[in-house]
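User: Please go through the entry that follows and flag anything odd:
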Amino acid sequence: MTTITALTDGDHDDWLALWWGYLEFYEADLSPAQTELTFRRILDPEASIHGAIARDDAGSAIGIVHWLTHAATWSEGPYCYLEDLFVHPEVRGGGTGAALIENVRAWAHQHGCAKVYWLTQEHNRTARRLYDRVATDTGFVHYEIPLGG
């Protein structure tokens, strides 16, 4: 059975291994300093970024999820943005991704959020099969303007 808990300082090394796997999957290159800043933000009770880790029956870390909240113009309650979701390739398809999403959904509901939403790459078919089961494809297209830094 998969167990999901909020990230703690003691999860750092397990989180880091999954984080590097996530970045590799998306062919992203972040500095070690940014990685450590991200982990510290997740642990900071004053920050709006949250995280959880999934472990299997043996206690091995098999997945992570990060989310944040923000005010919205279309609702009284905040929106919850699921920013990062990663499940170790060896256990994909076993329900860990769905459990991590459900963890975020339950947290968002408990904290008065109006919705949970996320983005994924169009070609990420494995993840999209899961997303199509647990959420609605809104049809929106993502644009961005990098600002450097």
Summary: The beta strands are 3-6, 49-55, 61-70, 79-87, 115-117. The chain has four helices and five strands. The chain has one domain: 3-134.
